[in-house]
Design brief:
With 159 residues, this protein is mostly helical. The protein has eight helices and no strands. The two termini are 36 Å apart.
Length: 159
């Protein structure tokens, strides 16, 4: 019975991906995740909501990266509420980033460049406007440097 349901879900996902003009065989990333139940599901939904709020803040606030929080949101949604994750993937704002990650296995170079540019801009503006002393400026710069390293190390999509 379980294999019939799994096959049906795979067919539905395959249809969804093919309607998005994506290679159906590359959608196997989405079909290998296990759903959680009970208290863990509630925790995952709560975490997904929190990371989604941070991703939305990252759209508005320069310096706060959107992509990592968006990927974390999708990670927790696909395990706790797959239909909500599909709605997130269909969104015009976040969909392309998530499709690149789930189907092609990476983040496009243009998205990385934009994220790194915003980090530099935000750090420069915050240090200039707030006129931090040396120690807080160094702390903020080191934190930004770590964020940039994380962004650079994200894999790029397979073609």
């Amino acid at each position: 019975m379980k294999t019939v349901q799994t096959k049906q879900r795979n067919v539905e996902r395959s249809h969804w991906y093919s309607s998005r003009r994506l290679d159906v065989h590359q959608s196997s990333v989405m079909t290998t995740t296990q759903s959680v139940t009970g208290l863990r599901r509630m925790l995952y939904l709560l975490l997904a909501g929190g990371f989604f709020v941070l991703a939305m803040a990252g759209v508005i606030l320069p310096g706060l990266p959107t992509t990592p929080f968006l990927l974390l949101t999708s990670y927790f949604l696909v395990r706790s509420y797959p239909r909500l994750n599909e709605r997130l993937i269909k969104s015009k704002l976040f969909g392309p980033i998530l499709v690149d990650w789930h189907v092609k296995g990476g983040v496009r170079r243009a998205v990385k460049a934009k994220a790194i540019s915003f980090v530099f801009l935000a750090i420069g503006l915050s240090v200039y406007v707030t006129q931090f002393s040396l120690v807080p400026s160094l702390i903020v710069s080191v934190a930004a440097g770590i964020g940039i390293v994380v962004i650079v190390k994200l894999p790029e999509p397979r073609d």
